Amino acid sequence: MSTHNYRRSEALRALWPWLPLWTVVALIAIFSHGPMPLYSTRTLAVAWEMWNGHHWLVPHINGEPYSEKVPLLFWLIHAGWLVFGVSDVWPRVLEVIFGAIQLVQVSVLARRLFPERPWVAKAAPWMLMALSYAFLFGLQIMYEVLLVDCVLGALLCLTPKASRAEPRWLLFGLLIGAGLLTKGPVMLLHIAFPWLLGPIWNDWAREHRGRWYTRGVLSILLGLAMLVAWAIPAGFSGGDAYRHRLFFTQTAGRVVKGVQTDQKLQSHPRWIGWYLISLPMLLFPFSAWPRAWVALGTLRKPLDNGLRFALCWVIPSFVVFSLISGKQWYYLLPEFAGWMLLLAGAIAVLREQRAQLADNYWLGSWPLGIGSVLFAILLFALPYLTQVHKLHGEWIEGAAPYSRTFSVMFLLLGCLLLVRGRGEMRRVALAGLVGVLALNTLFTLTLWHKYDLSPASAMISSAQAGHHAVAIQGNYEGQFHFAGRLSQPITELWNAEALQDFARQHPDGLIITHPDQVEPSALRYGLLVQPFRSSWLEIWPAATLADLRAGRTPAEPTQAPTVFPAPTTVQYGQQP
To answer: Which residue ranges does UniProt annotate as crossing the membrane (predicted)?
Structure first.
């Protein structure tokens, strides 16, 4: 075998079995139910409106330019639609591809950063793919998983190879530009500190500080030039209001609390410690693995370059993101790879320098195993507990018919985690991956019908096809546009006067409402009633709803409303 073929064979063997395992599990999970409102449906709505209206430069939602997102993900979705046709299959497959790339990237990153500890390169992708929150969010058609690929690709450009110590500056700039076109200026926060603190972890940067920073600045300018090359023509194409939001308010409104904007932004302000208290959940199952905490707690100087890289990345980034007003768990998704590199490196040091702690059973996965067994017992007892009214709740009552089947799965996972001996990290990773797949499947069987907007989308699509105007009370997030392949915007109604005006102008139109409970009149006069998340969604004839809100008695409908679930199970004032 030639040297080239041997290296290729070694690279392929390094992907076994974690990459095919994760790919199969991800495909099963992402196709177990439809696109999730409001995350996936909003992304698909924007992609659809750009495609349907030939808006290739400016993202649109509900007939208006959409300044909150940049276009790279939409362009990639369009590329697949050009080949395979318009459906939600390609966008979901695309997300799985992004996730697989991220796992390969973290493996390569670990191999370069920890050349003397090959175990880290083997462990890092296992650990990253097992993170429960990251896996579930990776099932959403969103921008962050593509952003992770851009961030990891850019950081790979900074890390030394055996054949080349100097970073690949041109590729570094191109990947920064791709990240900027994926998620905007936040891309710079994800890569800033590994670059700025380069001399701490990178020998070449320490010896060539001037070139490191000069060429790094030029690469960042290249990335910004790519963003500007899109933003300037997009700004002129989208109009004055869009241009103002694009260049100022849509970023500043998230970073600084209280910035005034001309339209509501998805800014999600949280208190400064919100990420800190969320870390145990974000890093589960490894946050419940005692050996992980012991490995981090016993780290001592001198640290190798890989550990210094991980610390230079995750700690300052975490602090800065905590200081920013707008917070969502998925904003930290690129740093999950850094946390797993840090954890894998710390465990590798523990295995080498403190063998007794590395082999101690009481620092092993038994807490996770006991937790899984207890959860299995709860699932097994769930039908009895609901029958005797000891436990209540929509999820509990919905899960009861399936819970005993799933209890067997969690019992087996618990037993796997209680086993002693080698391969503990892989057992934790495998249990985490299979466990989150089981929970996703249980969600599909029990609660997905409360998120499935297909009935409402079909009715709205039929109404627009018949040239009937459609409005919604409150904010519209694009949740019906892709599923219904809508070609017209939905009017937002913010007060009672707007509702009456819409009904006068469009007496044959439809109005969508989103009450906390089913209104009794909806089961008499409405067109459609269905559960949506923890509340309900109702579709009314516009004139009928206007009469009811004005205190008038409308004419009796010619047919009863369509009700989900069956009418016999819906009572007045009932929660979904």
So the answer is: 15-32, 169-197, 217-236, 272-294, 330-350, 362-382, 402-419, 428-448
